[in-house]
């Protein structure tokens, strides 16, 4: 215990353990330990939640919530770059002690040990980056240890911070005088140290004196105020003496003898080729040289080995000795190119060797490859010529030289190359003539040919003139040539050409064969068989015969052959020029005009402010070809007559359905009139409003010309057209049995149909149709094939209802119900006409009308009688459709209700009391007109939504009403 | 019938842009453009010979240029297969249109300069809606069988002359293509002011006056030498005289009706092909291009005196 009292205690002692207390708590397992930051926030998370401390409380938000960065216009400071530091992206914790970029006070990297640095920065070298120990030299590579990045020493840095700059000495600042003194002293000391070492320092007294003198001289310009940093002290390195030479003895240089630096003491010095000489000269005098072992007894003494340098040995003059030498050189080399000097050695005056060449030696550069077109050397040429003489000998033409040949061919020599001919023809005499004479002679030639004009320019002579002259000269030449060739002809077979010269007997045979001048094949064989020796085989005989015939053909004497084949160039030219003259005279420009269709693009027309020709209905070939690749449902609408090319129905579908609706609701006209409540006035007004509405059915046709999308009825009618007449007739009968005149017109129409179609095609092709096309052509243009694809689906419900007899659909479709038929029959004619009118009104182009217009031409076409009739028929058919077709459709009451719920439903019913259906329709129309726009809209939208079903519903309903009324 | 006065050289301008490929007046003749083989177009004042602006941006020789009706744009054709629509005042290319498969030879504006028509070595005539940003041609006419050498247009027609010897009239109003075949390669086409006749410069050293309506050959004008050059021709503003260049450094003026040579304008004694020319839209003034120079010729005596 006593001892314990004397002990010093450091730190706080742990509480003594209770007797039986065993640590109850288990130490937390590592996996249960949670690292928390100063905020008590969990620092580490699972790998899937972002490692550690992701976001703000494990969210992607922040304390402020997610606030976007304020917009800051960078307009003014586009160029300035915002330097982003890694800290900008760090959390607070990252900057803390344990973060990835801890911030605190610590020793700078420069002072820290490497291991410390590593520890601190955490940039521990990864295993992979560590040098491989498995190398040939174990341990850390030597080079890595040796080479370290250069860093200023700490002392240097301290000095620098104190104001020191490299290049100046340390110490108090000096005046100029002091500085000069110091520098002089330094120099001196250094010099002495260099040469004599520390011991040999002489007393500085004498030099002091001289310095004082200098000072006095400089005293005037001394300024005490200006102080300078002291000169940098160049440390003297005292190297330990490692040899036994005398003091300051350097020994012989070990540099190679030839190198010029060998003379200099420092062999490692950089060799300056140009400034070398002067330097070495100076050095020589400065350096102290010596011999290795002194001077021997029999040797001459070197000049003052231990001579001391003094100022007398210095050169004080700027003018060197070397310029003088140079001057001398210049004087010597008078006739030599600058930079060269005369060679004074006698070695060049060698006697040339004389070689005895063989007499027939010809020098040749064997390295030069000879062209095969180069002329052969004479000897070889002769040899070859001798060898091939017999081949050449065949034709007499080799007797002629080129000039003679040219004459034969009618070539005018002087024309082709006057100079050459002059040269070749020039005799010795001509050569002796002066050049001027020659030229004048030539010019004479020229003027003869009319080639040179007074102006001195060369101009082509008139071709015809030339031709005449040439022909004149040619005539003479040809005469000569004829005689020559005649000679040749006579001589050739006998002596001239011997193709089989090697085989004398064969040649003989050949000559005989030629002489015989046989033509017939059999005769030749017989003739040759006599001549040929018995030894010759049959095959050889045959061959020989062939050879002879060939040879006779090829080597025919040239009597006429040449003249036939070759014509002189002059004549050819003359002919050509003649032809040209003729051709230019004869060639008359015959204008040809062709016309073709051309479709200007719509935009082009627009820009030119021109309406598109044919209303843009011209077919465009290129575009169609392109468009064909695209899928179109109209590709499925097959039609027998009207192909896509000549008929344009780009999009019918939507209107297709609306058409019948329009019939019912009557078109809403863009201009609305004030509402009229009474039905009677409404009707009147309708007619008033529509001045364009035709009063007569005749003019209705013109209005109808505007293209209206096909209604199902129309389609059906079209379909029926293709059926046999027998079927049609009963259909027509069923419709028109009450009116005779109309029936007649229908027949007429039927007859005309072919014509109409043709016209329609013409119209579609953009051709102006000669026959008066009717507006009804528009109907014909429609697709009359049975519905397919989408359309099939559209019309299916109607068909299904009708189809009691699916085998015979068309008659069933259009066979009117008995009641209906009756109704039609009872309908007065006037009423029907009215109906027509109404239909015509419907056909007035609506704003909403959709689909392509027909060519305007068709519009303007005057209506025909028959056409009118057809129009009326169409109208009738539509009416019929209105009446009975919808009744076959399925009733959907909810549609009806929406319609009837509108205000005019009551009126509708009241109106229907009158049995004039026309009037009713018109009234409804007028009523609709004065209805508010909003209701219209809503109705429209509803209608659009329900479309067909609604329509059918309405029509059905009405027809029912009508029926019921008529029954009364 | 106005009396013919001889043309005299009033100005010679060294364009300093290599060989001058074409010279053109603007719409009122107060300025002119020269198209150089150095890929640039230069705008000049022909009266003073002052260089006003240089338009650079083509990648090959400029072959033709035309000024818009308000003189605020220039459209130019080049052998680099493109045509460029230039802003006159700023000198910057507004649009560069490339659809031609070959070098473009000729270009023109329609009357209100909304459509540019170009013809090229790819035998195609292309109509460009130049004011919009559309980069493809409004219409392409590929009927020609050889290079298009000249395009013209009036209110409702587009004329295209081709080396295949045909002048094609594209009538927009009628929707019809009329092809007048001459049979000789046509190197240039000019139109009379009354739009009744076309003057076709043919390769066989003849100018031919064609009737637009009937397609008949009205007259032939000979005397100059065309050789193998694409010599241009023109009709003077009074519709009474015809002018054409020649390959021997001169130009010829004919009487339109009588087809006789009125004047042989000696442009240079040193030869050189006078291949391009432009007639002043109002005055009796001519522009010629020969080698590197542009020549202004006029009948005005005063200018001549000034020069003297």
TrEMBL record, chain A:
Residues 151-171 form the G-patch domain. It comes from Drosophila virilis (Fruit fly). Residues 211-233, 904-916 have a biased composition (Acidic residues). This is G-patch domain-containing protein. Residues 922-968 have a biased composition (Basic residues). Residues 74-95, 106-121 have a biased composition (Basic and acidic residues). One of its GO terms (biological process) is mRNA processing. Pfam families: DUF1604, G-patch, HTH_TGH. Residues 1-25, 68-144, 161-233, 410-433, 881-968 are annotated as: Disordered. Belongs to the GPATCH1 family. One of its GO terms (molecular function) is RNA binding. GO terms for cellular component: nucleus. InterPro entries: DUF1604, G_patch_dom. Coiled coil: none annotated. Residues 420-429 have a biased composition (Polar residues).
Automatic annotation (TrEMBL), chain B:
Its main location: cytoplasm. CDD domains: WD40 (cd00200). SMART domains: WD40 (SM00320). Transmembrane segments: none annotated. One of its GO terms (biological process) is intein-mediated protein splicing. This is WD repeat domain-containing protein 83. GO terms for cellular component: catalytic step 2 spliceosome; cytoplasm. Belongs to the WD repeat MORG1 family. Keywords: Cytoplasm, Repeat, WD repeat. Signal peptide: none annotated. It is found in: Cytoplasm. WD repeats lie at residues 13-54, 55-96, 97-138. It comes from Drosophila virilis (Fruit fly). The keyword Repeat applies.
């Amino acid at each position: 215990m006593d001892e314990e009292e004397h002990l010093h205690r450091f730190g706080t002692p742990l509480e003594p353990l209770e007797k039986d207390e065993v640590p109850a708590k288990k130490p937390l397992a590592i996996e249960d330990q949670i690292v928390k930051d100063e905020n008590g926030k969990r620092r580490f998370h699972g790998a899937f939640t972002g490692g550690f401390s992701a976001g703000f409380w494990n969210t992607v938000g922040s304390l402020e919530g997610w606030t976007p960065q304020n917009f800051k216009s960078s307009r003014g400071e586009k160029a300035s770059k915002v330097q982003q530091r890694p800290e900008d992206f760090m959390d607070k914790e990252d900057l803390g002690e344990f973060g990835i970029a801890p911030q605190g006070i610590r020793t700078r990297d420069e002072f820290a040990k490497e291991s410390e640095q590593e520890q601190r920065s955490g940039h521990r070298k990864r295993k992979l980056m560590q040098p491989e120990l498995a190398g040939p030299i174990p341990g850390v590579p030597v080079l890595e240890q040796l080479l370290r990045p250069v860093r200023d020493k700490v002392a240097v840095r301290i000095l620098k911070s104190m104001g020191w700059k490299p290049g100046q000495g340390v110490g108090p600042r000096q005046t100029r005088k002091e500085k000069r003194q110091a520098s002089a002293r330094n120099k001196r000391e250094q010099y002495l140290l260099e040469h004599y070492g520390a011991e040999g320092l002489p007393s500085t007294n004498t030099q002091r004196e001289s310095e004082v003198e200098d000072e006095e001289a400089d005293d005037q310009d001394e300024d005490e105020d200006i102080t300078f940093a002291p000169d940098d002290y160049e440390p003297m390195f005292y190297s330990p003496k490692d040899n036994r030479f005398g003091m300051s003895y350097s020994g012989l240089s070990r540099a190679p003898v030839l190198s010029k630096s060998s003379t200099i003491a420092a062999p490692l010095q950089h060799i300056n080729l140009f400034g070398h000489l002067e330097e070495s000269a100076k050095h020589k005098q400065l350096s102290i040289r010596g011999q290795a072992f002194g001077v021997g007894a029999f040797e001459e003494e070197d000049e003052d080995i231990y001579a001391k340098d003094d100022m007398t040995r210095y050169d004080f003059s700027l003018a060197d000795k070397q310029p003088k030498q140079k001057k001398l050189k210049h004087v010597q080399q008078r006739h030599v190119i600058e930079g060269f000097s005369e060679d004074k050695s006698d070695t060049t005056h060698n006697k040339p060797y004389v070689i005895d060449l063989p007499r027939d030696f010809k020098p040749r550069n064997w390295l030069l490859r000879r062209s095969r077109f180069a002329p052969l050397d004479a000897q070889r040429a002769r040899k070859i010529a001798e060898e091939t003489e017999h081949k050449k000998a065949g034709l007499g033409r080799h007797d002629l030289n080129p000039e003679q040949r040219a004459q034969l061919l009618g070539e005018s020599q002087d024309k082709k190359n006057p100079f050459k001919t002059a040269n070749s023809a020039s005799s010795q005499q001509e050569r002796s003539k002066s050049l001027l004479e020659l030229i004048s002679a030539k010019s004479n030639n020229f003027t003869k040919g009319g080639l040179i004009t007074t102006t001195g320019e060369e101009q082509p002579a008139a071709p015809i003139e030339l031709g005449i002259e040439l022909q004149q000269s040619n005539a003479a030449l040809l005469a000569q040539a004829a005689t020559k060739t005649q000679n040749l002809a006579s001589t050739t077979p006998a002596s001239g050409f011997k193709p089989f010269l090697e085989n004398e007997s064969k040649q003989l045979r050949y000559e005989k064969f030629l002489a015989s001048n046989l033509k017939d094949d059999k005769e030749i064989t017989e003739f040759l068989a006599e001549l040929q020796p018995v030894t010759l085989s049959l095959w050889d005989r045959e061959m020989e015969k062939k050879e002879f015939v060939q040879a006779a053909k090829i080597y025919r004497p040239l009597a006429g052959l040449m003249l036939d084949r070759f014509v002189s160039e002059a004549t050819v030219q003359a002919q050509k020029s003649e032809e040209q003259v003729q051709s230019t005279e004869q060639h008359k420009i015959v204008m040809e005009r062709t016309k073709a269709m051309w479709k200007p693009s719509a935009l082009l027309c627009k820009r030119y402010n021109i309406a598109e020709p044919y209303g843009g209905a011209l077919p465009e070939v290129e575009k169609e070809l392109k468009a064909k690749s695209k899928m179109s449902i109209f590709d499925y609408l097959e039609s027998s007559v009207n192909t896509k090319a000549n008929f344009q129905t780009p999009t019918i579908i939507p209107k297709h359905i609306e058409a019948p609706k329009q019939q019912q609701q009557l078109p809403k006209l863009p201009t609305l009139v004030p509402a009229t409540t009474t039905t009677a006035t409404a009707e009147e007004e309708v007619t008033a409003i529509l001045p364009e509405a035709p009063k007569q059915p005749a003019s209705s046709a013109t209005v109808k010309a505007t293209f209206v999308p096909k209604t199902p009825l129309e389609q059906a009618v079209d379909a029926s057209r293709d059926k046999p007449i027998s079927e049609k007739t009963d259909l027509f009968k069923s419709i028109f049995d009450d009116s005779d005149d109309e029936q007649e017109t229908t027949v007429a129409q039927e007859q005309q149909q072919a014509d109409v179609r043709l016209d329609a095609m013409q119209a579609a092709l953009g051709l102006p149709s000669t026959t008066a096309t009717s507006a009804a052509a528009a109907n014909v243009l429609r697709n009359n094939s049975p519905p397919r694809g989408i359309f099939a689906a559209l019309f299916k419900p109607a068909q299904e209802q009708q189809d009691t007899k699916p085998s015979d659909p068309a008659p069933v479709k259009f066979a009117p119900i008995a009641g209906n038929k009756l109704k039609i029959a009872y309908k007065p004619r006037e009423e029907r006409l009215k109906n027509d009118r109404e239909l015509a009104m419907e056909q007035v182009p609506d704003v909403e009308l959709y689909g392509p217009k027909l060519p305007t031409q068709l519009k303007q076409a005057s209506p025909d009688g028959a056409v009118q009739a057809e129009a009326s028929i169409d109208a009738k058919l539509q009416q019929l459709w209105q009446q009975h077709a919808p009744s076959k459709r399925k009733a959907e009451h909810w549609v009806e209700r929406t319609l009837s719920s509108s205000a005019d439903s009551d009126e509708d019913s009241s109106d229907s009391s009158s049995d004039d259906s026309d009037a009713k329709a018109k009234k409804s129309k007028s009523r609709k007109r004065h209805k508010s726009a909003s209701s219209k809209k809503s109705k429209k939208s509803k209608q659009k939504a329900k479309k067909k079903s609604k329509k059918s519903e309405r029509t059905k309903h009405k027809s029912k009403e009508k029926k019921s009324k008529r029954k009364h | 019938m106005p009396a013919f006065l001889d043309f005299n050289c009033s100005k010679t301008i060294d364009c300093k842009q290599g060989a001058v490929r074409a010279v053109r007046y603007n719409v009122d003749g107060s300025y002119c453009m020269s198209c150089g083989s150095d890929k640039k177009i230069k705008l000049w004042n022909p009266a003073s010979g002052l260089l006003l602006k240089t338009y650079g941006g083509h990648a090959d020789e400029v072959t033709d240029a035309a000024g818009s009706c308000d003189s605020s744009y220039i459209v130019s054709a080049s052998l680099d297969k493109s045509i460029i629509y230039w802003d006159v005042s700023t000198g910057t290319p507004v649009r560069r249109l490339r659809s031609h498969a070959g070098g473009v030879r000729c270009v023109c504006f329609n009357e209100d300069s909304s459509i540019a028509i170009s013809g090229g070595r790819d035998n195609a005539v292309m109509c460009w809606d130049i004011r919009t940003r559309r980069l493809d041609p409004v219409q392409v006419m590929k009927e020609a069988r050889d290079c298009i050498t000249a395009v013209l247009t009036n209110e409702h027609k587009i004329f295209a002359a081709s080396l295949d010897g045909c002048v094609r009239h594209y009538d927009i109003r009628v929707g019809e293509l009329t092809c007048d075949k001459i049979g000789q390669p046509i190197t240039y086409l000019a139109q009379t002011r009354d739009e009744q006749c076309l003057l076709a410069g043919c390769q066989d050293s003849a100018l031919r006056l064609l009737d637009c309506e009937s397609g008949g050959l009205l007259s032939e004008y000979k005397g100059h030498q065309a050789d193998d050059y694409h010599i241009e021709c023109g009709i003077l503003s009074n519709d009474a005289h015809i002018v054409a260049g020649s390959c021997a450094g001169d130009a010829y003026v004919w009487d339109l009706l009588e087809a006789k040579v009125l004047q042989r304008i000696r442009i240079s004694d040193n030869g050189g092909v006078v291949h391009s020319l432009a007639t002043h839209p109002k005055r009796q003034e001519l522009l010629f291009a020969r080698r590197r120079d542009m020549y202004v010729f006029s009948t005005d005596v005063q200018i001549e005196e000034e020069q003297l």
